[in-house]
Amino acid sequence: MKSAAIRCRGLVKRYGDVVAVDGLDLEVRPGECFGLLGPNGAGKTTTVEIFEGLLAPDEGDVEVLGQRWRGDGRALRDRLGIQLQETKLHEKLTVLETITLFRSFYSRGAAPEEVLELVGLEEKGRAWVRALSGGQQQRLSLACALTCDPELLFLDEPTTGLDPQSRRKIWEIVHDLRSRERTVLLTTHYMDEAERLCDRVAIVDRGKIIALGSPAELIASLGADNVVEIACERPPDLSSVPGLGDVQLVAGDASRLRITVDRLHRAVPGILAALKTQQVELLNLATHQATLEDLFMALTGRHLRGD
Amino acid sequence: MPVPIRYSPLLQLSLAKVRGILREPEAIFWVVVFPVLLSIALGIAFRASGPAVLPVAVQQGAGAEALVRTLTASEALSVELLEEELAREALRTGRVAVVVIPGESWTFWYDPTRPESREARLVSDATLQRAAGRVDAHATDVRKMTEKGSRYIDFLIPGLIGMNLMGTGMWSIGFSIVNSRQRRILKRFVATPMRRWQYLLAQFVGRLVFLVIEVGVLLGAATLLFGVPIRGTWVLLGAVCGLGAFTFSATGLLVASRPRTVEGVSGLMNLVMMPMWILSGTFFSTERFPELMQPIVQALPLTALNDALREVMIEGAAAVQILDEIAIVGAWGILAFLTALVLFRWQ
To answer: What is the pLDDT of residues B240-296, one digit of tens each?
Structure first.
């Protein structure tokens, strides 16, 4: 078996009193697309920047493509494609000039024109970076990371702040890379992005990995395929209803519940019958298929986004 | 396998630097257009005029007409006859330089604090005395100094070049580095195998391109429009400009080594340049500052650079004659460069 693309053990990074990464262990296999999924401030970016050799960990051991970061690490950097969060490339260079500049830093790689095509910006080669939309700038940033034909690609929040169409475009590019067996490590706080792109996902919260597996495995670990959300005029008692999984309060309100269920067609009538017996009026009822978001909520009691 | 020239990082980094400046219209204005406009404006304001004609008034009274006739005969004077009140008003406002009052003895009414007024008094006195029969005790002759190199514009142009080398060097390096740091481009570069010294070297290479343009334009304007002489060798003049550009680029690098925002570095740069604008003898000679301040004034890199440029351009000095200035400018440059390397913040 080939050695891991990334392997780390006991990774710790502190900023003053704040522990950004808290004893993290991880192994990314060659050729897989691996996702770090977690809310903002979970320590994803810090973790990735340690892998990228931009930050030194306080504790722990990191190996990237079988090597440790030492000295300037140029030989290792030559094999990595890196997209950072919030890099604003020079506005008054053209798209092609920018890619060519990045290409010149590497000992090998694709021709800038080919990379341009890969990210679908061939029409924009001579346009100034300033004239690009947010989604196009993000694709250019991706192109700069791809220009060295990397063995390992890091994408930090590649679609944050983009419109749905631009996100889909980026997904297509990453999907294409995956089919060519490049190793990709991406961070995201969008569970749909992780579900769609990643072979395996690590859910990160407060600097620790709280769940690890393929998206399907992780959702299955909820023990139920569906989620029912109800809102009532007063708190109901559902303890007598059979076939319900985990029951959680929404926003600490006992009259609003999230219930994981295995079989929707049996659970919902049971819930309705119980409410009728107790004479509790139902204000709202919604169901959806279980997602990574539900797993995150089940594990932490919080949403991925917005907290 | 040799790397194609297209993928030479030094070339690409330098190209990016030059393009960045060329595509910034404001930068072109301040680097090229503004210094030329400034030299034209100052050159016109302080142009050497022909021999001055001194305005003289004769006050109305007995014998005034005769005085007017006598004085009018002198080419150096323009004469008018005025009532006492009007004559006082003309003298007070500086419209005339002296008022001659006729009478038993001639009275010269003048303002001893004004050189022009003192001169007009002496010239009109001499004219009247000679007409009245005074004979010079000894024969005299005159020769006129018209050589170029002694005018204000000749003093000004080397100083403007020096000031421009400072301003462009600091801004073109400092501003773009901090801008790249703020946009996290530096961090992104550090994540690639780019060699850091190549990035820094490219900043200087890009600067060098503009050195040729800005000095060329200023010297061209100075020699063509004002006939400012260049008496030293072009090679030495070019070398002094190059050294000055290096020193102030290194200063720009030092100033830009830490700040995270463009606002921060702008303030720092003005703080560094302000004393030199005033003290370094760009617009007037540093000899006007008191003895006590001279050690500071003379130790400033711009003072030394301005002196060296003047000596090469106007005096035709050779390299050995400006070794002190070269040493001061060079020492500042090397010190700033090494300090910047230690302090530089990439992320």
So the answer is: 999 999 999 999 999 999 999 999 999 999 999 999 999 998 888 898 899 999 999
Q: Structure tokens of B109?
A: 């009414």
The whole-angstrom distance between residue A176's C-alpha and the CA centroid of its chain comes to 17
Which amino acid, B29? F
* Whether the predicted model's global pTM rises above the 0.90 cut: no
The shortest C-alpha distance from B258 to chain A (Å) reads 18
Burial label for B135, CB within 10 Å (0-12, 13-18, 19+), is: exposed
| R_g (Cα) of chain A, nearest Å | 23
Work out the mean pLDDT of chain B and round it to a whole number.
89
Spacing of C-alpha B199 from chain mean position: 33
- Bridge partners for A63 per DSSP: A7
Q: Is B260 on the interface with A (CB under 8 A)?
A: no
* Residue A22: φ, ψ to 5°: -125, 75
Contact A96, A116 (CB under 8 A): yes
Beta carbons of A105 and B187 less than 8 Å apart: no
Which pLDDT score is estimated for A202? Answer: 95
Phi, psi of B169 (to 5 degrees): -60, -50
Query: pLDDT digit string (tens) for B291-339?
Result: 999 999 999 999 999 999 999 999 899 999 999 999 999 999 999 999 9
Closest in A82, A87, A90 to B16, CB measured: A90
Going by pLDDT thresholds of 50, 70 and 90, the confidence category of residue A305 is low
Model pLDDT for residues B16-28, shown as the tens digit of each residue: 999 988 888 887 8
Site from A67, A105, A144 to mutate, B interface, most B CB atoms within 10 angstroms: A105
The closest CB to that of B193, out of A86, A89, A105, belongs to: A105
- Closest residue to B183, CB basis, from A88, A97, A106: A88
| Ramachandran angles phi, psi of A110, nearest 5° | -90, 160
Residue B78 pLDDT greater than 60, yes or no: yes
State the pairing for strand pair A226-232/A244-250.
unpaired
Could you please report the per-residue DSSP string of A206-268? Answer: TTEEEEEE-HHHHHHTTT-SEEEEEEESS----TT-TTEEEEEEETTEEEEEEEEES-HHHHH
| Minimum-distance CB partner of A105 among B184, B187, B192 | B192
Nearest CA in chain A to B190: A54
From chain A, pick out residues whose CB is under 8 angstroms from the CB of B19.
92-93, 97
Nearest residue to B254 (alpha-carbon basis) of B138, B342, B162: B342
Residue A142 has pLDDT above 90, yes or no: yes
**pLDDT tens figures, A246-258:** 787 877 778 888 8
Q: What local confidence, expressed as pLDDT, does residue B51 receive?
A: 60
